[in-house]
Amino acid sequence: MNNIIVYCETNGNSVAEVSLELLTKARNLAVQLKVKVEGILVGNDLKGLENQLFAHGANVVHKAEDPRLEFYQTLPHAGIVCEIMKKEQPQIGLFGATPVGRDLAPRVASVLKSGLTADCTSLEIGDHYEKKTDTTYKNLLYQIRPAFGGNIVATIINPETRPQLATVREGVMKREELTTLVKGKVKSWKVEDIVGKDKFVVEIIERHVEDKKVNIKGSQIIVAGGYGVGSKENFGILYQLADVLGGEVGGTRAAVDAGFIEHDRQIGQTGVTVRPKLYIACGISGQIQHRAGMMESSMIISINTDSKAPINSIADYVITGDFAEVVPKLIRYYRKNSK
Amino acid sequence: MKPLKIIVLAKQVPDTRNVGKDAMKADGTVNRAALEAIFNPEDLNALEQALRMKERVPGSTVSLLTMGPGRAADVIREGLYRGADGGILLTDRKFAGSDTLATSYAISMAVKKMEYDIIIAGRQAIDGDTAQVGPQVAEKLQIPQVTYVEEIEKVDKGYLTIRRRLDNGVEHVKTPFPALLTVHSSASDCRPRIARNVMKYKHARTLTELQDTTEDYTKMFHDRPYLKIREMGVEEIGADVEALGLSGSPTKVKKIESVVFKAKEAKVVQSEDKDIEKLIVELIENHTIG
Predict the structure, then answer these.
(1) In this structure, what are the phi and psi dihedrals at residue B88, rounded to the nearest 5 degrees?
(2) 3-state secondary structure string, B86-126?
(3) Angle B133-141/A99-112 helices, nearest 10 degrees?
């Protein structure tokens, strides 16, 4: 009762990265609330996966296995998760903001008539005073998320309803294993007792894994490289930074023409125009044709050995230096300081 | 095959994509004047899928349902111009302040007053990006949902075959209908307006809009009843007022911080470790990253 439950997504033989990040975060919140962390695993033949959950801080793992649940399906999963939440009465329920989590969580919230906040980037515990009713709510979950196309950051609370539900973006929280493994408890749930045949009406015919479509236009954070990056291999570190920050990689025409990066990532007059929240320009001099495609970015950071590069005139921050030295530092200090 | 009754859920949203540094006022509030009101982009993708189903199954109809203030009737007109057959504006002051749970309750109550085989909507709206209303409407109607739809590949008697676009690939599913679908931005773009439809529907108005105009539409509406856009409020849909607006919304906004970047001289940062760390901490604190 009153614990924190994390819905853990699986992909094949492992637990999704975002779920392990959420368990790590839940552990931290649980300490503040003096409660325990529970994980939910739904699938087929989940042998051993609970150990990954224990290693990341789950004290209890709820397991529901059935051959029909090899892949995620809305209705049976929602039925199982709702049943577990109704019986266990957690105060907080967390999901990854993935296609699965974003399909499942709203359905669960609608059944439980609970508040749900989508795509959180930070979670904290805090109090709330409601003036109208002169009521103080202790230890609420602050669900912090960008809104309005990234132009505002909102803190959302659910004062009255439980569980307080949230989905959380992948990669924004740190994943940490416990240093000493504590073996938790497994609780098995019988799928056929919870969901009837009528919940298996949507049939998965075929699935195949494909590379992600490049979507730099829709990305809030872009790490871009120019001819100054020097080679295709050197772009690797830019991909690492983009990965860590949850962004995409783009390039100038010169970098594309030189074969450092694919054409569909070209930014500028002859490529795509982008307006991200943050644009990190690495080794880009900033010819007008390139600037035209990115100058409306909300914030621009320029990393260049040339302190007089034209791009610096529209940058908010100028780091004079070699990107090959600066970018790894950005990665390192982001990892160190992000929650 | 029996003609399909298709409802498209559409929302009018401020265009949060096309904003530069003037999106926010100096005091940190949203500068709505700088933001155009548009048809939510993924709802247009949904409309296109609806129109294609209509073409495949002769006799089918596409109706739009939108919830919002009076000016949201623009969304219905836009849909009519592109090939929809009708629309309903769900509007009432009592809806104000509704979060996704209260909104989906209102929409589901309105849908219950309509006939439908398939309900289709955009995956999410660009002002909130929650992607919650679709699945919550489906739950309230007790029908299956298919989210992240890229294409409806086949329409058979009682079944749809659908391709979904996921983060790392695609999935083909077969769902019985009635069902609710939400369409991803990777789906086909919506067809443009059809000149004939623009001529036909340019005078389409809600009753409220008619009351606000000085022109006399009485005769025109009598001759061409299809110009009347129906409005529904709390009473028409038979909703419980307590489950709407602020009282029906479990989530509350505690605090809003704007992400304001004033035009300023570029700050020069040294490439030393301590300076880079300071920059990163600053970016995390002002929510640019993390």
Answers:
(1) -130, 135
(2) EEEEECCHHHCCCCHHHHHHHHHHHHHCCCCCEEEEECCCC
(3) 50
**CB-CB: which of B131, B140, B289 is closest to A102?**
B131
Tokens found for residue A226? 């120019």
Closest CA to B290 of A218, A169, A129: A169
**Superfamily of chain region B5-243:** HUPs (3.40.50.620)
| Closest Cβ–Cβ partner in A111, A118, A320 for B139 | A111
pLDDT higher than 60, residue B264:
no
Q: Which residues contact B128 (CB under 8 A, 6 or more apart)?
A: A118, A147, B100
Measure the CA–CA gap between B69 and B97, rounded to whole angstroms. 12
Nearest CA in chain B to A202: B175
Taking CB atoms and an 8 Å limit, are A148 and B16 in contact across chains? yes
CB distance B51 to B82 below 8 Å:
yes
CA distance B30 to chain A (A): 8
CB–CB contact B16 A75 (8 Å): no
Tens digit of pLDDT for each residue in B108-160?
Answer: 999 999 999 999 999 999 888 899 999 999 999 999 999 999 999 999 999 99
Nearest CB among B30, B172, B267 relative to A151 is that of B30
Model pLDDT, residue A114? 97
Mean pLDDT of chain B: 91
Which chain A residues contact residue B264 at CB under 8 A?
A: 316
Domains of chain A, CATH where assigned:
4-200 (3.40.50.620), 221-337 (3.40.50.1220)
Chain-chain contact of B23 with A151 (C-beta, under 8 angstroms): yes
Query: Would you give the distance in Å from CA A37 to the centre of its chain?
Result: 20
B183 neighbourhood in chain A, CB within 8 Å:
none
pLDDT of residue B100: 97
pLDDT at B286: 84
Residue of B nearest to A105 (CA): B132
Q: How far apart are the first and last CA of chain B?
A: 52
Contacts of A205 in chain B (CB under 8 A): 161, 172-174
Check whether A169 has a pLDDT greater than 90: no
Q: Please give the pLDDT value at position A323.
A: 94
For residue B135, the distance in angstroms to the closest alpha carbon of chain A comes to 6
